[in-house]
Amino acid sequence: MPFGLTAVAGLEVGHFTDPRRPTGCTVVIARDGAVAGVDVRGASPGTRETELLDPVNAIDKVHAIVLAGGSAFGLDAAGGVMRWLEERGIGASIGATDGGRAPFVVPIVPAAILFDLWVGDARIRPDAAAGHAACEAASRDSLAEGNVGAGAGASVGKLFGIGRAMKGGVGTASIEVGGITVAALVAVNAIGDVVDPRTGRIVAGARTADGKKLVGTMRALRRGELPARLEPTSAAGAATTIAVIATDAVLTKAEANKVAQMAHDGLARSINPVHTMGDGDVVFALATGASGRAAATTLIGALGADVLADAVLRAVRAAKGIGGPGLPDLPCAADLGAGAGRPDTREDA
Q1: How does pLDDT run across 62-87, given as a tens digit for each residue?
Q2: CA atoms 96, 98, 101, 105: torsion sign
Q3: pTM higher than the cut 0.85
Q4: Which residues constitute the domain of residue 142?
Q5: CATH label of the domain that carries residue 213
Q6: What is the bridge-based pairing of β-strands 242-247 and 282-287?
Q7: What is the Cα–Cα distance from 31 to 52, expressed in whole angstroms?
Q8: Which are the contacts of 299, defined by CB distance < 8 A and separation ≥ 6?
Q9: Sign of CA dihedral 313, 259, 79, 288
C-alpha cells in the first residue's frame, strides 16, 4: 500500500521539478472531486481560489490542489492543471455549451505558492506547462520526497539570511486508524528552524556564521542576536510552508476547514518560529469520502496535525544539499548530522 498522501483513496500526486534553478510544483488530483477547506496563517501568502473554500460559498468540491515554488509567478501552474483536467472532462459541470451540443466543465483548482527565488535564476519559475507536466506524472504510487516538486528550491532557517540557511523540501506521511486514513503532504520552506517535537532537537535551520553548526534561531533571539531586518522585504524574509491534509473519511466543507485549522498545530510543533511576517503558511484539507465512513472532526484534525509534523521532519531529512555557481550554499540535515542539534528549550536560551 502506498505511504503518504497517496494512501488516501481517490487521490493521485505528481511532481514537476525544473533542474535549471531548481524549482517546481506538486499537484494533488481528485478525479471524482473532494470536499475541501483551507486555513491561511502566515502573513505573506500567495494563493488562488481559497475564498471559494469558505463554507458559506457555493462550490463543495475541488478537483486538484497545486503547491508551487516561484513566488506569485508560480500560481500560473494552476492554469496548466486546469487544462489537463478539462482535457479529461474533469470539473464542475455547467451543462452544455456550443448551442447545446457539447457538455462543459470548469475544474476547481485552488493553489498556494512559496518563495524560492533566492535559489538560482529567479526568471525560471513554474508555469502552466509545469502544472500540466506534474499532472502527467501523477499516480497513486508512493511519493518522492526531498528536492522535488514544490520543494525543489525550498530552504529553512532563513531569519539570519539565506547565507546561513539549510535545504528544505517535500515530505509526506500517513496513518490509518479505525479504517480511516489521514495523510499529509508538505513543502517546507520556513523562516524558522525545523524541530523534532519528540526530542526537542533542531533537525535543520539557521547556522552559525561559519556555517558549521546549528545556531538555534529562538536561542539566538532570546540572547539578543537579532537579524538586521525582520520583515519580508529583506533578503532574510520571504519563505512559506504549504501543505495538504487529506482523509478518506466523509467530511462537510465546514469540517474540512476546521481540520485545516487544527492541522496548523503540526507546523507549530515542528517549525520554530512559524507563521511569521515572512511566511505565507497555508494548509488545505481534502476529504474524498472514499472509505464511506463518517469521522469526528476532532479526530481527523488531531491526526492531521500529527502526520503534518511527521511530514515536515521527513521533508528536511530527505532533502539533499545544494550549492555551486549561481546557487546559495544550502547543506541538508544529513550534512550537519540530522537531529544532532541541541534541544530547543527555554532553559537553553
Answers
A1: 999 999 999 999 999 999 999 999 99
A2: negative
A3: yes
A4: 5-348
A5: 3.60.70.12
A6: parallel
A7: 19
A8: 177, 180
A9: positive
